Amino acid sequence: MKNLLKIFAAITLVWATNSFAHNVNKQCDVAKLGIDKVVGYAKVHNKEAKAKGVEFRRLNVNNTDLIKAVEDAVANGEKTVQPMHFKGKDKSKTKLDVNYAAQRACHFAITSLTQAKEAQKTYKLSIPGDGYKF
User: Fold this and answer.
1) CB neighbours (10 Å) of residue 5?
2) Average confidence (pLDDT) per 10 residues, the chain, 134 residues
3) What integer pLDDT is reported at residue 23 of this predicted model?
């Protein structure tokens, strides 16, 4: 019975994750919505993520710096983005296309909030001694 419950929980989590990914991809689609709207979503959600302390950092770049770099690139008409390193001293080695960087920033901003919310519900599933193999 315990194993059946664990399998059901895993299937539910996979289903919820897949439907979430589909919604995030719709909300962060630069081709359909335009870069300004996607960056707007990223700014709103990232502000909330930063306030909660769950802002994403990937490739030595905070999501806030990635959003700022995209806004600057759009304003200057540039095709690529090279955001600041998270330590703020110089630019990172990361170079991204502007549209991809906007989509990535939006996705990271929304995902950080949803992962924080999911963690509150599912953290007990990974406590040592509960029967799961690590």
Assistant:
1) 9
2) 55 49 77 91 91 84 88 92 79 86 91 85 66 58
3) 77
Question: For the purposes of burial, counting CB atoms within 10 Å of the CB of 120, is it exposed (0-12), middle (13-18) or buried (19 or more)?
Answer: exposed
Domain count, the chain: 1
In a domain? residue 49: yes
Question: Is 114 a member of any domain?
Answer: yes
Report whether 25 contacts 103 (CB < 8 A).
no
Show the DSSP H helices in the chain as ranges. Answer: 2-27, 30-33, 35-52, 63-76, 98-122
Extract the tokens encoding 112. Answer: 């950080």
Which pair of tokens denotes residue 110?
């929304």
Domain span including residue 90: 2-123
SS3 label, residue 95: coil
Other C-beta atoms lying within 10 Å of the C-beta of residue 64 = 22
Residue 130 carries which side chain, given as an amino acid letter?
A: D
CA pair distance 51, 87, nearest whole angstrom: 19
Q: What is the DSSP code (8-state) at residue 90? A: S
67 neighbors 105 (Cβ within 8 angstroms)? yes
